[in-house]
Design a protein that fits this description.
Elements lengths: L1 H25 L3 H5 L2 E9 L5 E2 H15 L4 E10 L2 E11 L9 E12 L5 E8 L1 H9 L2
Parallel strand pairs: 1-6
Antiparallel strand pairs: 1-2, 3-4, 4-5, 5-6
InterPro entries: Cyclase_SnoaL-like, NTF2-like_dom_sf
Organism: Litoribaculum gwangyangense
Protein name: Nuclear transport factor 2 family protein
């Protein structure tokens, strides 16, 4: 019975972590988002080129923050399975940054987090429907 209780408190900690991670994205300060990752943390989105380390993670976040100055990220849910957490999110914004299309996007996805012993994201595998995102971005 005590095992369940500690699992719940660990889950609760990651739930709070997810809410703060969401707030970091919404702060529009890329380094805040990157601070939720280990120093050598990795983010791979849709099996693309990995962002490795906080500098590259911040650059990745900055690219979205600049492209969508009004971006709003919401945390939809959090689940745990086989030692990893899935952070489900929805991204909304208008592409009014430099060379922007002026179109609004509203798409959802998730990140599958492997946490390190310090409670930071060591590896995140992000997934979203890139085709749907592209259609919205281009106004198709």
């Amino acid at each position: 019975m005590t095992g369940c209780k500690s699992d719940k408190s660990e889950f609760d900690k990651i739930l709070i972590f997810g809410q703060k991670y969401t707030d970091a994205w919404n702060s529009k300060v890329p380094e805040k988002m990157a601070s939720f990752y280990a120093e050598n943390g990795i983010l791979i989105v849709n099996k693309g080129t990995p962002a490795i380390g906080r500098k590259q993670l911040a650059e990745t976040a900055q690219s979205y923050m600049e492209a969508f100055p009004d971006l709003e990220l919401t945390m939809d849910s959090l689940t745990k399975k086989n030692g990893t957490y899935r952070y489900y999110w929805t991204f909304r914004g208008t592409n009014t940054g430099s060379n922007g299309t002026g179109n609004k996007v509203n798409f959802s996805g998730f990140e599958e987090w492997t946490m390190n012993e310090q409670g930071l994201v060591q590896k995140s595998l992000g997934t979203y429907n890139a085709e749907e995102y592209q259609k919205q971005l281009e106004g198709i």
